[in-house]
From TrEMBL:
Record-annotated HTH tetR-type domain positions: 21-81
Transmembrane domains' residue ranges: none
Name by which UniProt lists this protein: AcrR family transcriptional regulator
Molecular function per GO: DNA-binding transcription factor activity; transcription cis-regulatory region binding
UniProt keyword Transcription present: yes
SUPFAM superfamilies according to UniProt: Homeodomain-like, Tetracyclin repressor-like, C-terminal domain
Species lineage: Bacteria, Bacillati, Actinomycetota, Actinomycetes, Kitasatosporales
DNA-binding region: 44-63
InterPro entries, per the entry: Homeodomain-like_sf (IPR009057), HTH-type_TetR-like_transc_reg (IPR050109), HTH_TetR (IPR001647), Tet_transcr_reg_TetR-rel_C_sf (IPR036271), TetR_C (IPR011075)
Keywords carried by this UniProt record: DNA-binding, Transcription, Transcription regulation
Length: 211
């Protein structure tokens, strides 16, 4: 019976820790860029190695498989998708959210679309995609709605309130499929003005003074 050698674990840990946090960020960025460019299925460890001038064996030692590398990239590059927004009114907040989401749509939408099919086959990848791109935006929008409800701008039981995040994020993903264009700032602002605010009982007259 073979005995466990702690020295082997130490050596393996040392090999895995050779990549610095800064280098890891470069690798993660390259992984997500390759997915945006060619899709998840076309992504290979060889392609990542070539793009980043990193040894393929290093990638395998550090992450093991392509799905593990993609999950690590999603978790490792999480960013503030919506800046802190508090204009003092729900209508103002949603207009600013539309501008911020629209400004990032050309960057985030291709990644979401490219990963969607693979994520449905992999619970771990789906979880990482939701945590990195989707849940932070949902939480930020729901916080805006909560503040608007607390200020009395919308009724406590306003039926449209629970669908605001789904409307904004859903149309961002749907427009490329329906019209072959990203839901940019101008489009999402018009969408908020014509669909989201009226459904909440708000309108152009609800804009903050000076807006």
């Amino acid at each position: 019976m073979s005995s466990h050698d702690p020295a082997q674990d130490s050596a393996a840990t040392s090999r895995r820790s050779k990549i610095t946090p800064e280098r890891a960020q470069e690798l993660y960025a390259a992984v997500l860029d390759l997915i945006r460019e060619s899709g998840y299925e076309a992504l290979t460890m060889e392609g990542v190695a070539a793009r980043t001038r990193c040894g393929k064996s290093t990638l395998y030692r550090q992450w093991g498989t392509k799905p593990e590398l993609v999950v690590a990239a999603l978790h490792g590059t999480r960013r503030m998708l919506l800046p802190p927004i508090d204009t003092g009114s729900l209508a103002g907040d949603l207009r600013e959210a539309a501008r911020a989401i629209g400004a990032a749509s050309g960057h985030d939408t291709p990644l979401s679309h490219a990963l969607s099919h693979a994520a449905l086959q992999s619970p771990e990848l789906l979880c990482a995609l939701r945590e990195a791109l989707i849940l932070p935006q949902i939480a930020a929008i729901e916080d805006m709605v909560r503040r608007g409800r607390e200020r009395g701008e919308i009724a406590p039981d306003a039926p449209a309130a629970e669908f605001v995040a789904a409307q904004l994020l859903g149309v961002m993903r749907a427009r490329p499929l329906l019209e072959m264009e990203y839901a940019d700032e101008a489009y999402l602002t018009r969408f908020v003005e014509s669909s989201v605010l009226p459904a909440l009982g708000l309108g152009a007259q609800a804009a903050p003074s000076g807006a």
